[in-house]
Amino acid sequence: MSTTIRTAPAEGGRALAKGVRAIRTPGGLSVRVEPRAAAAGVLLTLVTLAAGVLLIGSGDFDIPPDQVVATLLGHGDAAQEFIVHDLRLPRALVAVLVGGALGLGGAVFQSITRNPLGSPDLIGFGPGATVGALTVIVLLHGDAAATSAGAVAGGLLTGALIYLLAWKRGVHGFRLVLIGIGTAAMLTAVIHYLVTKADLVDATRATLWMTGSLDGRDWAQFWPLLIASVVLVPLILAFGRPLRMLEMGDDAAYALGVRVERTRSVLMVAAVLLVSLATAAAGPIAFVSLSAPQLARRLTRSPGPNLAAGALMGAALLLVADWTASNAFGERQLPVGVVTGVVGGVYLLWLLVAERRAGRI
Amino acid sequence: MQRLSAESVTLAYEQRVIARDLSVEIPDNSFTVIVGPNACGKSTLLRALSRMLKPTEGRVLLDGQTIHSMPAKKVARTLGLLPQSSIAPDGITVADLVARGRYPHQGLLRQWSPEDERIVQESMAATGVAELGERYVDELSGGQRQRVWIAMALAQQTPLLLLDEPTTFLDIQHQIDVLDLCAELHETQGRTLVAVLHDLNHAARYATHLIAVRDGEIVAEGPPSEVVTAELVEKVFGLRCQVIDDPETGTPLVVPAARAARRPQEPAAVQQV
Questions:
Q1: Do A114 and A245 lie in a common domain?
Q2: Do residue A249 and residue A222 come from a single domain?
Q3: pLDDT for residue A15
Q4: How many domains does chain A fold into?
Q5: Is the pLDDT of residue A6 over 50?
Q6: Same domain, A215 and A170
Q7: Contacts of residue B117 in chain A, CB cutoff 8 Å?
Q8: If pLDDT is split at 50, 70 and 90, which confidence band does B143 have?
Q9: Coiled coil located at which positions (chain A) (predicted)?
Q10: Across residues A177-194, what is the average pLDDT?
Q11: Which of A132, A232, B66, B111 is the least buried, fewest Cβ under 10 Å from its Cβ?
């Protein structure tokens, strides 16, 4: 089967934006490809893999990268086999899925709200999941699994609440951001209330959970996250094309035949679920969903939601941050949420300044 | 039976009723212009015709089918709309934006056919933006930007095209420019155009069919030469005027009466100022 790859003809006006190519098959199928975005995707995948190998190799018992790869391919000795497969691989895989989920969720919400500040952790879904988890820890004294379930329930309830509050003949970007930020502020008050109400053991557990950490994550966290990702990620990516149209405004999207409210509600539910599950698995890791989609955009230089690139950037960011948290501070290992918090906080400041300069806030 | 019509529709935003029991037919192959004072319901009527607003009673028919029960993409292949305001996504080029007009003809595995490419090029050429393909939309002037949005609507290749106040925010030269473009599309491509316009004189000059709306009711409709009279303008807009022949085109030209001549008739209007 011959596949033709062609750029737009040079004569006259170009019908495809610069750098965009179309791959066509004789059967009449065609796919738009942006080489720069594809290259960015490959690069981010490589960074993720490299950081993953480094992360798996480092710890109390260091394993050189080549042996990590050998062990992953099934050629390691028994000790390495145990350390890699039972201890460190699940943690790295959880990091990939959590980072990817946060990056993708952030890309969806920033696109729906048409605002780089419209990320799930700033507009209430992250804090909602935290309130759910803390309610289980502090009031119900539940175990880890119950805490995760609480986080998911909290995230979904908050999502429904914000959706209802922001509803006025459809949900619109700026209102969603404002109501989300207000809700986040109230939820933060609830979080503080729950922590002060807790006894010492519960309060310690709660604080640790809230920092966001990948320590001790194992296959038990990995499988539910994987199943959810296998269902939700393709669903969200499939809605990526109508989401691109939505960025031009509801009216323009309607005119092009996008089912606006359906697209928006499916994407919001899927993204809230994904972010809540990620939060359930690793705690509220700060700022990944805020910064990953924006960094991805700058890398691909492509207009539109940049969903896949956002997810890959989230995974790469979280792995690099986790490696940094466990290695860059000497003997003392930090939870990954501290690193993403510091980096993301600086980024948020920069973003606010840039947005102000552009006259958008 | 015309392709697009509304059958005794009641149009309302939540509780606020804009129009009741309104029926209208858009003549095929016409350049129909809807005019009326602010808040008379002309944009609302256009929103209903383009299925963005669902009538609380009655129905809008497209090719004999109720438009709201038709698949969204199928409607979008027949009926295009240029909304009053659209947002150009950050960092998007002209070619990329125009290409988005092909969305209703595309699918997950049919994202960019040779036909898409040809039509996008033709649309950019027809609107005179072919040279701007690689420019960013943010950098363009208001007039150029409106041409790009029209090019996107053209790329949708719909026999019917609705335009909601396409000349708002443009200076006079660009207003005429956009209206010339519409007239050209109507004449050379045989498309049915429906536009909401503010300027009665523009409407009279360019429309082949005029619909005058006031308080959610159609007061008059027909060719501008028959519809635009001093009585009608006073009835619809509450403005005393003369209607003379446009020295350029011979179409009706509305000349508002001098302030002194209008004063006794409009004490309320004076108080408002």
A1: yes
A2: yes
A3: 59
A4: 2
A5: no
A6: yes
A7: 8, 15-16, 22
A8: confident
A9: none
A10: 91
A11: B66
